Each structure stands twice: as structure tokens, then as C-alpha cells.
Amino acid sequence: MDPTRVFVKNVKRVVFKVGTAVVTRSDGRLAVGRVGAIFEQLEALNSQGYEIILVTSGAVGAGRQRLKYRKLLNSSFADLQKPQVEIDGKACAAVGQNGLMALYDSLFSQLDITSSQLLVTDNDFKSTDFRTQLSQTVNSLLALRSIPIFNENDAISTRRAPYEDSTGIFWDNDSLAALLALELKADLLVLLSDVEGLYSGPPTDPNSKLIHTYIKQKHLGAITFGDKSRVGRGGMTAKVKAAVSAADSGTPVVIARIHPDLCFHFLGSGFVAGNIGKVLEGQRIGTLFHKDAHAWVTFNEFTAREMADAARDCSMRLQISGLAKSVRTIAEMEEPIGRVVTKTELADGLILEKTTCPLGVLLIIFESRPDALVQIASLAIRSGNGLLLKGGKEARRTNEILHKVITGVIPETVGEKLIGLVTSKEEIPDLLKLDDVIDLVIPRGSNRLVSEIKSSTKIPVLGHSDGICHVYVDTSANMEMAKHIIMDSKLDYPAACNAMETLLVHKDFSSSEGLQDLVVELSHGGVTLHGGPRASARLKIPEVQTFHHEYNSRACTIEIVDDVKAAVDHIRKHGSGHTECIIAEDKQTAEYFLQHIDSAAVFHNASTRFCDGMRFGLGAEVGISTSKIHARGPVGVEGLLTTKWVLRGNGHIVKGDEGVIYTHKNIVSSAS
């Protein structure tokens, strides 16, 4: 049974809930463009006969931002020097609700839709008469094609903790939406979020996977939730609690991300934009909650994708032994410190040496994966550098144990303080100011993390903010080889920075069956395809807004180019300087690509996934650098060293170079 189709056949009445994170921007202001895109989708559904009920959050956040601004305008300089008192939440709710509904009414009016406002409190639902009247009023509004908009009346709510999760008939707008779906006999509840759906762990963790169908017997207690919403009261924990409650009562629920694009999808006799339309088409969007879900997939039954994912997870666990091997490889390296790179006789008896030495103190900030701590610590010790580590909070305890193990075996003559573990996120800004003590910062994680650190410190930063890796398929490519390389580059580990994000195809290759075969292979692998102008027109796939996009998931961009020169131009314009690959049998074409691509790594007939310190024989890596200064590509021990000049003489002086006969004779080099 296909669970994505079960609930869409007879859907007419739908409750949509939009949270504060959806309707407001990161600075607290209302996201007018995003809200407008949502309303366009709701208008399209309304015109096709769907009965739409909207539950909204955002009043408190919008009101707080507005009141803070007014307070600032009316404050004297002396007032601003005093400790600032937090504005009363109920006042924020009253002001924000007014502004929120004014915006909603204006946007719906532009779409020729009548909206109506209904503010409710927890106590209201204790009255049977209220519930009866509520149902009658909503039915009347829907019959008039008006869209009822619900919000909790926080301004006059008497609940003890109106701005935190608490007990009661409902405790936030997610649970209010679930309650209304039950009271108003809705056929479907859609909880719109700022993430794709429910994940097995924090969405920022590359090992987390999207759960398409929630099965209580399988997933309850097995999910690690991330942070709460950046604003508002809820977050995914509140959404799941509300979704389970509604589904158990008989109303199917979908948690999905709102994509406010203008890519319209066919639905019935019209078009609907973005994920809202896809949900009602029965497409596999977000996470589905249904009371019969346990019957669709038994507890011990897995889909092909789940079996493949489980196999990959087990494979990754085997790499703990691979990690130990990489550490041993580093330990068995030739001594890297004090190595003579060049030795030159400047003049008789005057010898100049260029030797390797540690950089000094490194600050490494990394997310999630604790195996990074072991790799980084090993490389730092081998290269003689002091080290400060800040790992992701998801692996805090594991990091603490690993740190204790590693520092416990450092000789007393060196001291266990060689490696420090930073446990608080609040310490990072202070550390980034220590440019007189810390010599290099290496961030490992999302492009957002890298960009934020680069903009927050004077200390040199080694790393890359994007991993937009390209694979170019030339007209001379071997088709079977191309399939294997492309599938491996994309699917071996889609979240890795060296995974393929853009596939470029020669125009002659694209006109044959080759491109269609590649598309079929990628689709079978679960890859969502997006296209540039030429590819989207030919393949009938959604067109991308920008080529400079790192998916970090089972998705990629395809574009058609005229030849290898056009491919090189495309990569120069839209690439991030990470890793690029050409698949070609013609050696002259391949050589042109290898010589003209200016990225940290460039491959011929090999997967982009080979760009890795362990695979390069470096033992491990602290990261991959796209910088052209100092280290570039996978950074191992060599990348954590610098050089110094050592000059040995016997009373030599310059004195205007009088009497000095320069020989500049090479004595030894690193090659020897």
C-alpha cells in the first residue's frame, strides 16, 4: 500500500497551521513574501473547492519587534543606559495580532479572498455550547468561501504559562490546530514548518534521515530532537506531539516544509504552487502521521531504501576500525617537524636551511561527528601543534570521553593541556578574538558555520564555505563508466562536501539516449533532479534559481553545455573551487579540463568522493581547503606545518656585500 495516496482521495476540508518561524524573518519582522506565497497556494485550493482553515502563530513575535522599535524611538540616551526590561508578552500579543491580521487581510484581499478572524483560549473549549457554536460559525464561513483564521488569544489567556509548553486542552498553536482538526471534522491537517519534515535526529546532522511515515511502535523514543524553534514556543517536539494526537483521533497529518517558490504543480483542474499542492496530490512530501500507519509497514518490515540506509549505517560503524587505522598511519609517518626542505650554501661557510615547524595553536570548530575529534587530535599531535576543540552539542558526551582518552596518554613532559576541549558555545566569540594566541581557525561543518567564523575573526581561517562539486560528461565518455562514477559521486555519501552537486553534460551526449539513461539511474537512486535552463526544458524538470547551490542531500542540478570549454567556464563561474571531475575517453579533452580548472582537486574518470585525506594517503584530514594560500585540498599533517629559515655562519657580516662571494649552491632539497 502506498501511504502517500491513502489520505488524499476524499480530502475536502484541510486545516493548515503556520508557525512563527514560517511567518517571521530571522530579525522578528513579518516575512511578507513568504506569507504571500503561502496565501497564493491557499487561494488556488480555495478556488478548486477545498475548504481551507488556517491556524497561525507569530503575533507575539511580531508585536515584540514592533514594540521594541517604538520603545527605542521614545527612549532618551539615559533610558538606553539602564537595564532593559523584557516587554510584557501579553502586550506583544495584542499589538502583534492586530498587525498580523492587517497583513493577512490585505494579502487575501489582493487575491479576492475574504478572510475571518477567530481568537480562542484554552478555557473556551471547556464549554459544550462554545464548541457547538464554533462549528456552526466555521461551517457558515466556509460555505461563503471565506477562510477562517485561528490564533490563541494570548493577550487575555489565563493559562499559567502561555508562552511555554504546559498542560491543558491545548498548549500551543500546534495542539490548537490538532484540536480544531478534530472539532471541525477536517479530512487532513498540514503543519507547515521551516524544515522538510521529521528527521531521525537533528536536521543539521548529516546522519539524520527524513522519516516519510511516522510509525509509533517504531519511532517513539528512537528520535533525537534538535533545538526548539528559533522563535515561538514549539519546535518539532510540539509538532510531533500534536500530530500523534490528531492522527490517533482519526485525522491524517503531514508535517512539511513550505517552499515559497513559484513552481506550480497540476492539481485537479488547476495549478497549485509548492509543497502544499504536492501534499494534496498525494506526493511523498514531508512526514505522514496516520492511525493505520503501523499496518502499512510492520515493525520488522523495511522498504528497499530503509534496508539500503541501514546497510550504509552499519558500514559506517565498521569505519571506527578504519579510523584507528588512519591514526596508526599518522603515527608511523616520518618525523614531520624539523625536516629540511631546502639546504643552500649562500657563500663559503654560510649555510641556509628551510625547515618545517608547527603553526602554533589551532582552534578547530566542528559539528556533530565525534570521529572528527580523533582525526584532528592525531594530526595536531603529529604536527606538534597545540589544539583547542569545540564539537557539536549532539556529541558532547562522546567528545568529552574521547578527549579524556587522548589527553590521558600524552606524556607528562608535554602536558595534557596540549589539547583543550571547549564545551560552551558562548566561549567561541572570545576565542575568535585571540589573534595574538591562536594561529589558525579551521571550521568543519555547514557553509553557514564557516561563513560566520570567517566574518567574526582576524585569525586566518582555513576551510571552505561551499562544496559545489561538478562532474562533466564529455561526448567521448564511456557510458557505463559515466553511470558508475556519477552514482558514486552523488550517492556514496550525499551530505559530504565532496559529493557531486552539479552534473554537466555535453550537448551531443544529451541528444542521445545517454542523458535519459543517467536521469533514470539517478531517479532510481532517489535523487531529486533540478535543471538549468537547457536541461529543464529538455527533461521537463524544475528549473533552478541559481547554480551556486549545495544540496547536501539526494538532489542535484543538471545542465547541458556545448563543449569542454563551456563546462570549464560554467565551473569557473558557479563553482566553489572544491572538486571537479571530467568523464572522457579523449585524452586531449581531458587534459584541457585538468589544466584549465582552478579548483583544489580535479579528477579524470574518477569519483569526486576520492577527495579525502585518508584516501589521499594523508592518514586523516582536518578538513578540505579551497584557499590558494598555504594548504589546499585535503589538509593533513603537511597542511598544519609552516617553515622557518635557519642560517648558520662563522662570523659572516654583510657590510654592503663587500668581500662576500655568493655561491647560492643547492646542497639538499626535499626531493632528495
Tell me the layout of helices and strands.
Layout: H1 3-6, E1 13-18, H2 20-23, H3 32-47, E2 51-56, H4 59-73, H5 77-81, H6 89-110, E3 115-120, H7 128-143, E4 147-152, H8 173-183, E5 188-193, E6 213-214, H9 216-219, H10 236-248, E7 253-257, E8 264-267, E9 270-273, H11 274-281, E10 287-289, H12 293-296, H13 304-331, E11 340-347, E12 350-358, E13 361-366, H14 371-383, E14 386-390, H15 396-408, E15 419-422, H16 428-431, E16 440-444, H17 447-454, E17 469-473, H18 479-491, E18 500-506, H19 507-511, H20 513-524, E19 528-531, H21 533-539, E20 555-561, H22 564-574, E21 579-583, H23 587-596, E22 601-604, E23 623-625, E24 633-635, E25 641-648, E26 662-669
Parallel strand pairs: 1-2, 1-5, 2-4, 3-4, 5-7, 6-10, 13-14, 13-16, 14-15, 17-18, 17-21, 18-20, 19-20, 21-22
Antiparallel strand pairs: 7-10, 8-9, 11-12, 11-26, 12-25, 23-24
Helix pairs in contact: 3-6, 4-6, 8-10, 13-14, 18-20
Catalytic activity: L-glutamate + ATP = L-glutamyl 5-phosphate + ADP; L-glutamate 5-semialdehyde + phosphate + NADP(+) = L-glutamyl 5-phosphate + NADPH + H(+)
Pathway: Amino-acid biosynthesis; L-proline biosynthesis; L-glutamate 5-semialdehyde from L-glutamate: step 1/2; Amino-acid biosynthesis; L-proline biosynthesis; L-glutamate 5-semialdehyde from L-glutamate: step 2/2
EC number: 2.7.2.11, 1.2.1.41
